[in-house]
Amino acid sequence: RFGFPGGWGEAVWDLLVRMRQEMGAVSPAVLCLGPVQHQSLFDGCHFCLVAADRGFDLTFRTADDAGLSLIKYGEFLYDNLIIFSPSIEDFGGNINVETITAFIDGGGSVLVAASSDIGDPLRELGSECGIEFDEERTAVIDHHNYDISDPGQHTLIVADTENLLKAPTIVGKAALNPILFRGVGMVADPDNPLVLDILTGSSTSYSFFPDKPITQYPHAVGKNTLLIAGLQARNNARVVFSGSLDFFSDAFFNSAVQKATPGSKRYSQTGNYELAVALSRWVFKEEGVLRVGAVSHHRVGELAPPNAYTVTDLVEYSIVIEKLADGKWVPFDGDDIQLEFVRIDPFVRTFLKRNGGKYSVQFKLPDVYGVFQFKVDYNRLGYTHLYSSTQVSVRPLQHTQYERFIPSAYPYYAGAFSMMVGLFMFSIVFLHMKEKEKSD
């Protein structure tokens, strides 16, 4: 029932080739590396057809193709990379783990599907991204959450949607049916804060050899067992690792699912397809992409920014933030965007208020002069890192701008004038005082 299909079929493959030729050099381009042991270049054709329908220029190659290349003359040939060849031991052409790592460092996004038959290159790539795969021939096992059609090793896992990352931008907003999974387990590097636990195993899951008795502590146990993991690098490059290649197959997309536990509900279809599409939209930067539009700042009541602000000025700052939705830039709707007015440390930190697609705020500059920055640093789960910094100068008051008399100094003024009046009166008394003459 869940046998992985052996090939695309000539008709489907011809359709994909014609579609790619008709689309021409449509950006963004995706290089798809398929398994070398099949006659066709890829399995899970429905997933790729959907990607082509979304406007991607798909290029299909086997992972050991001698003509493979990601970089030519210092330029990336593709925007995204799909690796659906878990057992590959050596990539063809000039592609290797170092090349893929450089591709990620250059901002490229990668979607990787592994399996229990995982080769060293994918294992090394995972280590570079803070993901550690379990040993070859191991599988995720769950004796309480397996499908009713499992052959007996309890490796056909039914993952509840409660174990998904709470990030609609990554996993989609729609309610999903249970996820069907069969593959290798992963664990995340605890020292890497960029790794995302997209789908974890249940508390009863673990990763081990399904045909051997447990003689040592498993590599991954319980919620620490990652089924699908992600990474968004500091340069906004995105990587998704799935421990199951079957997860993307038509068989798993269209299969019914039901836990073997008595009384469990039967679902006519898994949630694999919806989750796979949501993950591909995120990793290929169709979702969760933000950008900064126009930025302006000026004194309240004016329109143009001055050459330099003066301490205690009342200023207005505004910024336009947009997100990518269905290929178009639309205003971003957020209520937690903050502005900082920074010299070395923030002197002012305040929330920006949305006003017709523009975020703005008015505030009073601190009574401190120097070189400051208007800084917006927005970093939220599932979204690209948004950063905007505008440097301005703040000068002290000019001599003609100071108050003639400072109210807080009135006691000192009174003390000074009272001293002068007292000295004047003392001088008069002292100068005109005449001692009485002594009588004989």
What does this structure look like?
This protein has 8 helices and 27 strands. The protein has 440 residues and is of the alpha+beta class. It has 2 domains: 274 residues, Rossmann fold (3-Layer(aba) Sandwich); 110 residues, Macroglobulin (MG2) domain (Immunoglobulin-like), CATH 2.60.40.1930. Strands 2-1-5-6-15-14-12 form a 7-stranded mixed β-sheet, with helices on both faces. Strand 16 and strand 17 form a beta hairpin. Helix 3 packs parallel to helix 4. The longest helix has 23 residues. The protein is elongated, with a radius of gyration of 34 Å. The N terminus is likely disordered.
Quick structural gist:
It is a single-pass type I membrane protein. The chain is of the alpha+beta class and 440 residues long.
* Biggest pleated sheet: 7 strands, mixed
Could you tell me the mean pLDDT?
Answer: 87
CATH class of the largest domain: Alpha Beta
**Alpha-carbon Rg, integer:** 34 Å
CATH fold-level topology of the largest domain: Rossmann fold
Give the secondary structure arrangement, pairings included:
Elements: H1 10-23, E1 29-34, H2 45-53, E2 57-62, E3 71-72, E4 75-76, E5 80-83, H3 97-105, E6 109-113, H4 120-128, E7 131-133, E8 139-142, E9 157-159, H5 168-171, E10 179-181, E11 186-188, E12 195-200, E13 205-208, E14 226-232, E15 238-242, H6 250-254, E16 257-258, E17 266-267, H7 272-283, E18 290-299, E19 309-310, E20 314-325, E21 328-331, E22 338-342, E23 346-351, E24 353-355, E25 358-364, E26 370-378, E27 386-395, H8 410-432
Parallel strand pairs: 1-2, 1-5, 5-6, 6-15, 19-27
Antiparallel strand pairs: 3-4, 7-11, 8-13, 9-10, 12-14, 14-15, 16-17, 18-20, 20-21, 20-25, 22-23, 22-26, 24-25, 26-27
Pathway: Protein modification; protein glycosylation
Main location: endoplasmic reticulum
Protein name: Dolichyl-diphosphooligosaccharide--protein glycosyltransferase 48 kDa subunit
